[in-house]
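the two lines:
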Amino acid sequence: MKYDLVVIGGGPAGLAAAHAAWEDGCKSICILERDKELGGILNQCIHNGFGLHFFKEELTGPEYAGRFIEMLRSTGVEVKTDAMVLDVTHDKQVHVVSAASGYEVLDAQSVVLAMGCRERTRGAIAIPGTRPAGVFTAGAAQRYLNIEGYMVGKRVVILGSGDIGLIMARRMTLEGAKVLACVELMPYSGGLTRNIVQCLNDFDIPLYLSHTITDIQGRDRVERVTVSQIDNKRQPIPGTEMVFDCDTVLLSVGLIPENELSRATGLEMDARTNGPVVYENMETSIPGVFACGNVVHVHDLVDFVTAESQRAGHAAAAYCAGQVAASTVIKPISAGNGVGYTVPQHIRMDAVTDAVSLFFRVRAVYRDAKIVITDETGAQIAAFAREHLAPGEMESIKLPRVLLDKVQGALTVSIEEGK
Amino acid sequence: MYDITIIGCGVIGASLAYRLSRYDLRVLVLERENDVAMGTTKANSAIVHAGYDPMNGTLMAKLNVRGSEMMEGLCKDLDVHYQRSGSLVIAFSKQELLTLQEMYENGKRNGVPGLKLLSAEQTHAMEPNLADTVRGALYAPSAAIIDPWGLCIAEAETAVKNGVELRLRTAVTGIEQQAGHVLLHTSTGDVQTRFAVNCTGTHAHELAEMAGGEGWEAKPTRGEYYLLDKSSGDLVKHVIFQCPSSVGKGVLVSPTVHGNLIVGPNAADADDADDKRTTAPGLHEVQTVARRSVPTIDIRQCIRTFAGVRAITNRPDFIIEPDDVCPGLLHLAGIKSPGLSAAPAIAEYAEKLLGQMGVCYVEKPDFDGTRRVTRFKHLSGEEKAKLVAENPLYGRVICRCETITEGEIVDAIHSPIPPCSIDGVKRRAGAGMGRCQGGFCGPRVMEILARELKTDQMDILQDQDGTFLITGQTKMGGAKA
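prediction for all of em together
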């Protein structure tokens, strides 16, 4: 089976990439989705707040996914659901298995990786204590509630203030559970401000910053947890212990791009994002293999996933049409002071038409700060003033071509604290 | 009247059950939990020790070396993950090099094959990621890594397939020696049996006390571990031990048969026989000590921490003997490390002792001591295609981290000892063992379990009884199209 483009993952990233590629004239496209339905994690995000940027209206997760699924219906894009990709070879053979079609090898001219991300677990953060039932990642709990229709607890403590945890604080409360506390290791929340307000404050759920769960108790089911304040070395401060009698702990302690396939394929990876290194058009280190969405870096808003994935889809279509974005002038971008990572990690100057957008996250909360772009000579290329910067909100800047032309060697993005 | 009743179905009870299932005997196995392999068997280092460590002349020394000899063939027969990785005990000082020399000689006396003392250069050539401070090592090529609960389940299943009766959720509450037989009081009724065997691990002393004797003093000791993601699975190729001290064999670093890296254990007093908690200081100790061996261990790659309890007693050796007061009761107790390594040999030895106690062995003509399991991810592309064509359920990947298919999960659910929990499926099929720890596949495994067992999803447990996941329906709950 031959395709111009095989898209791995039928969540928001894969859907947008496939649609953009189709619009650009790529005519044989196949989306491979491991779940039973398209839409990815949006299917269990039944709350609203999606689409404000992209559709200029407020949608629920399933509605947002539904828009794209509807848009694809009128195209010739093929979809295989319940289909798991086992391997992508260097020459873009995609090995896939499904109950419906068995074991197949698809020959792809180009590939878009859009596998999304997974949640960090209790194991990843090694919370001490016993190991009873009742400790769920927020996303797993969300699936039980919103897809399966089951409640997973009555008295809940949430560790981590990532967006899914905040959303689940509200969701569990609306379903009659008592959410006792949201506990955050960092001195600031990892989620969007609007979620802190709408999901915690509106329901009088206390948020304990610079705190963590130091012990989980209960033999069979969670019975209580101990929460302690931590010092600046993240060590619990003795004497600050609070004990919560609860039957459930939800974890919202970070998301990790799911790149097992990317690694097995041999893509160059970025240790800071846990995603593949990409160029300005979302192409990875293997020509014709693109990546977009949470598999590249974790986004806060699906609207931005869509925008990024459309760029990947357009680029894949261009690649299939023979427009290879080879360039000898490659400008690497590095994360400087206060910046965790950047996407893209490289810019190919020949491929840039009018401007390049850079996405990144800062490492701490800043007020009245400047985002500063410098080059290898230390010359300042551009500066962008920001009233507020926080790790929980992805930042972006647009660099016009005229500025990029001035850059000597590598670019660095850093934060300068204002006063 | 049963001929033999085995109390406890961890790896010791299961090894004995498997061994006895070849004979024409009425054998009963009692297990207090809802599944087999629920105690120390599922929480240990997963190592088959070579046998240089236990002092020559002890039962531990003899049975460890014999068990290590038997293990490879046993795992082949039962299709259990086993890999003869070899082990290195590393030394950081002159003093420790002397300890290696003593262990080498003790090992020779114990009959451990192939032992070699290595120089620092030889050691680093074999394991480049070891610390520069390593000054030499004792190499034991016969040491191996194994799937411990997999072995227990395979033996128990094969025993059941060959006619052994297994009663789960049955705790023994009293033991009486009667004329010519033993009467066991249990939570599911009395059992009459000619002989009983105590394989209750960290609880073994409780049974000895029930029988009316003095027993021994239990000193349950917790060991805490980190399990690291497969990305760290090839940091070392051998089991890496440090020199043993008075508190045990120390913290090891080892690949697992599932491709992960295991780091641990420490040794901390347990509150009781089931005290499997981890603690912040304990885990900290484990990672600090392990970094002495392999400085580049990245603990952020951890996917799970856990603790197991060692069945340590006030007696230095295994306690394998008939009870003083109740002569029909044979104790296989105090089975601490190297208990897993010795398990098949302990069973062999127990069979002999039971013979001396009066059991007659007549082989069954129809005994089948083998077992085969389908493992999708280990098949070639061609084999995968063929399998999915025969049964489409093998084409539906449920556990994406470990590539475990619905076919394999359904196989596990309909195996001779059907699991009733998500972790029971995990221990059999491997779903949920990966880096997302069942975050994605847990709800789907629950759904498959409920469907195959024809029960409600609300009744599906995470693990042992009481580990319920669902507390009720949502307001529109369960209303599915």
